[in-house]
Give the backbone structure.
Amino acid sequence: MIVRIMGEGQVELADSHFIELNKLDDELLAEVQSGDEEGFRRTLGALLDAVRRLGAPLPDDALEPSELILPSPDATLEEVREMLSDDGLIPG
């Protein structure tokens, strides 16, 4: 799956990594819903770090369609709230 981190670029992630990412996404969803700014900031950083660590970066000149778009590391709780679905940022 091709994942874009806003403001950074794209990475390709194997489907097998989504179990780990979905756990962080569930935490992030709960923190956004409760308004836990400190927890939100920590978990968003952990989620983006995991995507960077587990994914293979695509070249900057690659123009692949992103199947998933994640917020930038400096996104606000309110900006992420607007991006969330009932499943969080990551479907499934």
